[in-house]
Amino acid sequence: MLTPRLALQSLRNRLLATTLTVLSIAFSVALLVGIENIRNGLRESFTGTISGVDLIVGPRSSSVQLLLYSVFGMGSPTGNISWETYTHFRDHPAVAWTIPYSLGDNHRGFRVIGTTDAFYEHFRYREGRSIAFREGGPASTDHDVVVGSEVADRLEYALGDEIVVTHGMGAAGIMDHDDAPFRITGVLERTGTPVDRALYVTLGGIEAMHAGWEGGVPPMPSFAPPPEDENEAGEADDGAAAPGTRANEPPPASVEPAQITSFFVGTPTRFEMLGLQREVNDFQQEPLTALLPGIALAEMWRTVGYAEDGLRIVSFFVVIVGLLGMLVSLYTALDARRREMSIFRAIGAGPGRIVSLLVVESGFLAAAGALLGVLLVYGGILLSQGAVEERFGLLIPLRPLGTLELGYLAAVVVAGFIIGLVPAIKAYRTTLTDGLSPRS
Amino acid sequence: MSLEASAQHPAVRIENLVFSYRKREPVLDIEVLEVPAGERVFLHGASGSGKTTLLGLLTGVLSAEQGVVRVLGTDLTSLSGSRRDAFRGERLGYIFQMFNLIPYLTALDNIILPCQVSSSRRARVRGPLEDEARRIAARLEITSLLDSRPGELSVGQQQRVAAARALIGRPQLVVADEPTSALDSDRRDLFLDLLFDSCREAGATLLFVSHDRSLEDRFDRSLSLSDVNRALVKAT
Ligand SMILES: Nc1ncnc2c1ncn2[C@@H]1O[C@H](COP(=O)(O)OP(=O)(O)OP(=O)(O)O)[C@@H](O)[C@H]1O
Ligand SMILES: [Mg+2]
Question: What is the model's pTM?
Fold first, then answer.
């Protein structure tokens, strides 16, 4: 066919202008698709902070508060749940499994969470991924601790290191549980969630730190007194520490704490979930709040999602500016060919030929730009995915194009074809002299 | 003289033609204008007298609202726009004053282009298109330039390539709009010699537009648009 061949030869003749036009289209497409991917990555990493958990139960509070401290490790717990209440729901027929959480301590600014093996078994994030160990394994005794990947990396911890935990959320200081050091038995894989910034001990481990000195919490009869470091016993700030215990003896395996902060619930079927939520919220013995994490996360994203709105606005302007830029560069590229069109007219080319020559060219440029833009984004994501996750804890997944992007790509290509019509019609309307005589 | 040239039709006959651009004053108002078949006709007139406009009408790029424009026996005013394009592509040759060639095609590709745009023009060439292009190029003394692109040619060489393109496929009417105005007098004479030879060989009528009266003597006939165009008298 003559037309594609001529169009191609013509494009090659104007290689630099053609390349720049394609690049400008590609960059505008890449910008939009890139922003959409980042926006999507942000939302997914937010809403994927926790998954596979059907209910989160805590003391009566706002669901935002409960979500913040139990899932995101932000803010302070509003209270506790008694062990009896926890066991009531743990043994409830509509409950498949529970993950108890006991918060309240920190290690050099990172949260320390008391939990059970259920955490490693049932906790899921980002569409069902489970917690995995980079090294070692779960805490088996009350003096074992598992550290999140960021904790391990920032503080340069390795298996077997001994660490000390501080009471409360403040920095290390006078309230250090120097008498209760923990030994690192496991380091978790990176998850890109708050799990990376936490340390995990057993429920008994949390209790062990507090036993005997935390004024509000009486020592449990069934509970082993905290071990004492013989060398530092005299120097401990906390005079209430119970003396006379041996540091290296593992405490009994089934220490029952007096209370926990919150717990995650898995139900056998989704059907039981709603009934259970109502039951928890109406629980008479203790005021409780149960929330559905999926819904609560989506709601919270909507209220804190200003960043997303901002990106949406940027996307919108990128679309407008990108389309305008493309139209301008295509139009000037085509308008420069009016002379050529006069020659084609003079040798008998009809409207069909003139229009197809210009429309094929601009449509081809637009399509090539769109394709290149998409390739740029996906190539860029593939290349930088690891580094971005490493640096920002934000996983930008490779995903198929969304409707906004497909719509934009379609608009780019269609506008590319349409803009070719304008100079084509102009070329057909004008006389042979247009652009050919020195006068014009 | 070829068969086509000896046909009884004049190559061009215009009767009672009135033409204006959009809704303005008429630019052309011609009672009668005739170009006999096979002749070389010199058409002159002051700048702005409507020479290029007339060629536009004769080649069917423009269309007259009044009168008859009969070219090679066909009344162009009775044809639709695309039929006029097809007619021009098949049977006419057009040479511009300058900027005649497609810059990204070689001289050879430029010459054969009309036969690629119009299949009926291609059908008038017997044998391979390239052989025909080389034959015409040989007459115009540009054989060695066929693989060059227009940017590598002198203006005079470009005009000869343009003439070869206008002549390929045996057009019966070749229309040239001041093709020599960018040439010095030596090259102008050489170009005219070659153009005349080629038209005679192809049996084509030549309508040559220029306001350079010094060329007038070399043609069979001379027409002054300033005399024929009544619109000019009214305007002044
Ligand atoms: N596309 C156009 N639209 C409107 N008016 C035009 C157009 N082309 C030419 N004209 C007008 O028509 C008249 C004749 O123009 P034309 O180009 O035919 O003159 P010409 O005899 O070829 O002049 P020159 O010797 O300078 O080439 C001029 O007054 C010009 O202004
Ligand atoms: Mg003119």
Answer: 0.68
